[in-house]
Design goal:
440 residues, alpha/beta, five-stranded mixed β-barrel, 16 helices
Length: 440
């Protein structure tokens, strides 16, 4: 199976990758790495960046600190500052270094991905203590945490089985480590009991869950949907190569009304040549096959993706193939990132394309993505749909989700977890406006 092949290939690190991994392991042994207990009964400010998984780490850390008698406060009142870092792209790294420099005069602690792979860069602007993500994992009592509103987050796995040539996260997070299924099920039960409706499963590759335990994501999802209660699961990011190995049973599990009709498969490129240089482990046709198989069963399903604009060596023809794939797959929500080299990765040795080209291609992808957003939303105009209130972003309005995970804003102040029906009246591209239907 494709996912297992990637798992084997992923064990083969390049010299540069091995050097980065050795740096991470050195960071784990640093004498200044301190225990979380040293923050006991202090006033602490936590600033967090990055993905859903990383923010969940921050919430778990906050819960640990509160159990130690700490008071979570703003930066002006704190006597200790924690920055939970991300370094997925160069722009994020620069932002992290600016934030760390800003707090350099404070009693500063750093966690997240950055200290595992870029301790030298951190030391160039500050001399912080380090809280390793592994320490948070070991101390946390659950793999679940409450997000905002009616949202709960469950960290199903850390690390991945991939070997992407540009990715620094795999160097920071390491190989796949799946949480035990019973821990995940317990977390879902507790979150539902606490009032969470939307349960987000998160990991660097959710589709790879269980490969290291002889289990599979469809099995896990089926067990979750058997849990009593009123909730729906939003599976997180899934590597297309991992999806290929579980495609049919995965599609079957989405038939449950306890799973949102939402799929996030980061494609990165529509060119087979570029995908090979990226070491992604699949072809563009595989992605089309995944999308078509899901949409044949669930026509209104929301399928999202990520693309990298201007990967080293990308030709005009290769970029046109990426645009063509975006149009063919009609991804509804797209994250476009201009390529930036990450230290320690194989792609860092490749020659960058000019920034102008990367910027132009990024804009072209975004323009096409916006057209697709509008087209998808227009199909909902005038339709009735069930909704559940999950978040609040502005006064007198409520953010709701429909079964396809469509972002429906209702101009009423609804309680979290409220369920009803609405007719979609306005397209605002990244969300739609719905008018609540009153029961007669």
């Amino acid at each position: 199976m494709c996912s297992k092949e990637i798992g084997r290939a992923g064990a083969e690190y390049s010299p540069a990758e091995r050097e980065s991994i050795q740096g991470r392991e050195a960071a784990e042994r640093e004498s200044f790495t301190i225990a979380i207990d040293d923050l006991r009964e202090r006033k602490v400010y936590i600033e967090s960046y990055g993905c859903t998984y990383n923010h969940a780490d921050a919430r778990r850390l906050a819960a640990i600190l509160e159990g130690l008698g700490c008071t979570l406060t703003g930066p002006d009142e704190a006597d200790a500052v924690i920055v939970n870092t991300c370094t997925v792209i160069e722009a994020t790294e620069r932002k992290m270094l600016r934030r760390l420099a800003l707090f350099a005069g404070s009693d500063l602690y750093v966690t997240g991905c950055m200290p595992l792979v870029q301790m030298e860069a951190i030391r160039s602007v500050c001399t912080p203590h380090v809280i390793l993500p592994a320490e948070i994992q070991e101390r946390a009592g659950s793999v679940g945490s409450r997000g905002t509103g009616a949202i709960g987050v469950v960290q199903v796995a850390g690390g991945c089985v991939g070997r992407c040539s540009y990715c620094i996260t795999r160097l920071a997070r390491g190989r796949l480590v799946s949480a035990p299924s019973e821990d995940i099920l317990d977390a879902v039960r507790h979150l539902v009991a606490s009032g969470a409706y939307e349960i987000r499963l998160t990991g660097q590759d959710v589709a790879a869950w269980g490969l290291d335990r002889g289990e599979s994501l469809p099995e896990l999802l089926s067990a979750i949907t058997d849990i009593p209660g009123r909730f729906a699961v939003r599976p997180g990011m899934m590597h297309p190569a991992s999806v290929l190995g579980i495609l049919k049973p995965l599609i079957d599990t989405y038939a449950s009304d306890k799973i949102f009709g939402f799929l996030h498969i980061p494609v990165q490129s529509g060119s087979d040549a570029v995908l090979e240089r990226m070491q992604r482990g699949y072809r563009a046709a595989d992605v089309v096959g995944i999308v078509d198989a899901f949409r044949e069963r669930y026509p209104d399903m929301m399928i999202s993706s990520d693309f990298i604009a201007g990967f080293p060596g990308e030709t005009d023809e290769e970029f046109s193939q990426t645009l063509a794939l975006l149009r063919r797959a009609a991804f509804v929500k797209v994250n476009v990132t201009r390529y930036s080299r990450r230290p320690g990765t194989p792609a860092a040795a490749l020659k960058d394309l000019p920034e102008r080209i990367r910027k132009d291609r990024s804009r072209a992808l975004l323009a096409e993505a916006n057209r697709i957003y509008d087209s998808y939303n227009e199909r909902w105009m005038g339709r009735e749909t069930s909704i559940v209130a999950t978040e609040k972003n502005a006064p007198e309005t409520t953010v709701c989700r429909n079964p396809c995970y469509l972002n429906v804003v209702v101009r009423e102040d609804l309680p979290f977890g409220f369920s009803g029906r609405a007719v979609i009246t306005e397209n605002r591209r990244h969300y739609v406006v719905g008018e609540l239907l009153q029961d007669i």
